[in-house]
Fold this protein.
Amino acid sequence: GQQVMQIPQYQHVQEGEDFTTYCNSSTTLSNIQWYKQRPGGHPVFLIQLVKSGEVKKQKRLTFQFGEAKKNSSLHITATQTTDVGTYFCAGPSSPSGGYNKLIFGAGTRLAVHP
Amino acid sequence: NAGVTQTPKFQVLKTGQSMTLQCAQDMNHNSMYWYRQDPGMGLRLIYYSASEGTTDKGEVPNGYNVSRLNKREFSLRLESAAPSQTSVYFCASRAGVGGFTEAFFGQGTRLTVV
């Protein structure tokens, strides 16, 4: 079945450094979503990418969707302590699954040291 | 507007006991999901319901059953709890049938099986 792989599993940065997490799917995705989970909290939706090669920005966060729609990345510029948490990518299942399944990557846990 | 509500928030079970985790959403969403989260494993889909009256297996369905009681409610039952089911369980809902809507998560249920 479809797999969504995410690297790295853990990243520790000094405040002000940049951070990137990568997401790779074993199959072509119709779209990809990104979520953030603060420590002790629940996942919260950040953004959705739909088009091949799409790039979206939210302040210091830049999201990209690969040309082949099988990979994506999230880049944070000049991290702040408020960026601490786990970042997940998620993609819907294959057409045979009706796109109703939402499969998550294992997540990248970001630690930011002041 | 409460969003997605899960009960209970915490639970300790003895091996072999049964229990039902409750989930309700007040957003008139069609699709509902149950995930479990274990350290380093991300969010793994247990079961989902694309619409009222339907349920389907996710990635890790063994040891669980679900009921989509009505459009609002989606419950997860552990018939005979095992220590391997110690985890944080999240319920989520999405508006549409299909892959292009964001998921909203409940606060989670922390389950310990001893």
Notes: The longest strand of chain A covers residues 85-92.
